[in-house]
Amino acid sequence: MIEAHEEDLKTYIYRELEQGGKYDIADQSFMNRLVRELTKGAEGMFLLPVLRLRTILKEPTPGQMEDRLADLSHSLDDAFADTIARIQRLPESRSRLGLDALRWLTLTTEAMTESELSDALAIHEKQNAVNVKYRPTTKTILECCQGLATVDTEGRVRLAHYAIQEYLTEHSEDLFPRAEATIAVTCLRYFVFENFQDGPWTDRSEIKSKMEMYPFLAWAARHWGHFTQQTETDPEVWSALFTFFSSSVATAVTNQVRQYSLGLRRDYWIASECWSYTALHHASREGLDRAVNQLLDSGAFSVNELTEMGATPVLMAAADGHTLTTRSLLAHGANPRLRNWYGDALDCAIEADRVDTIRELVRWGMDPNGVADDGHTYLNSALDTDSAGAFATLVELGADIEAQSEKEHHVHIFLTAARWGCVKIVSLMLMRGWADIEMRSPSGLTALHYAAAAGETTTVKRLLDASADIKAMDKKGRTALEYAEARGNKTTARLLVDAGALPRGANRARNLVLRSDRPAATH
């Protein structure tokens, strides 16, 4: 909650009254009374008096302002309701713009930039191309939202207070009917606009240019699936979805812009990979279970269709944790053991920490103790992203920690987890008793040695908190502190020293000092 100090509020209100020209129609005594009333009812909140002030300032005469002041509620919900009513009383096009903007701001999980929101609000039914003449300015958007929206320091448009989010979410069915479906359809229609029919593009600069010219494109490419999954059975969404799927250009462009805007490496967004990314891959990645079944039943797609990089639909579904879609693909004959550059479907689910999908794949028949041709194990996939939930699930389903340690690491997997900075998995193994904190490698190194050598300060701290022996030496007599210093890991070394570690030779030097401080023997 944004708090308000009384003097700040008074300063703000007097400034608004002056800028609004209200001193021309009301005397100073009324203005002073207005400030007192608004400040008194603030209850430590800045937002409430601001909304109440804006309601009062809309009145044309002092008498009407006094009437409005007497009628105003002191509750936030009533203030929000008054503001919504004020938006609804605006001229039709401005009222629609204000409510449309609030719908986007209420439902989006990733805040939109000014240009993204403006571009989205410019999309109207029956358009087949972007028309920049319909893009509203940020000033106009904020005016139509009547104080419920603001622009943050990073240029993103947000609701002005989390209490507004709560209010609009609670009343969304009345204020924004079919809101998710409307956003899904807006995204899907945008993808098939004429502006993007020259894609996918071969050059990085072309992609950036399109994203700058059409700001909504990247946002829509990242988020269309979220809203479509929620509303897949809506007839309008279903129609727009299959119009999108029927355009190979649209599906290729959407994938290219998504992958590029997420900062993925070039292999993911080059034109040839994007051309190979089919409607079935899209539907699988976004968890569109009904669409997946429809596409497969049509006979137009192979359930094991490969992209240029080797991605299959079941890999896409597993990596994004869409368990029902994974199940549907398996039922249609998908082979989860097919591998791309990273691994198979179980590897992808593990790396993304998708616990339910891991269970589904093992239930289907994948072996949690399976080993790839290169010796890669599934527990190792959990280490790649410190996926503790996946690690625990694999062990629960029968993964053998000792056996997988021998196959891939040549040391216990606990020591590898420490070296790689997998603090969640290190904590899990200690908590479950799956590892001895003082276990050693063949060279006598402990987990603390490995973490210190790698400069994994967070893991070092976790091990120290778990009472790891800070004085432990390897077979050559070296401590964790010596490993940290040898690798130039100054922050880690300082942590160890602060925890009581002594540099090499410090014990001997301390003993010499103690002996020199003793009084001389008398004879």
TrEMBL record:
Domain GPI inositol-deacylase winged helix: 101-172
Signal sequence interval, chain numbering: none
Per-repeat ranges for ANK: 309-341, 443-475, 476-508
Keywords: ANK repeat, Repeat
Cellular component annotations (GO), alphabetically ordered: cytoplasm
InterPro entries in the record: Ankyrin_rpt, Ankyrin_rpt-contain_sf, GPIID_WHD
Protein name (record): Ankyrin-3
Gene source species: Penicillium subrubescens
Classification lineage: Eukaryota, Fungi, Dikarya, Ascomycota, Pezizomycotina
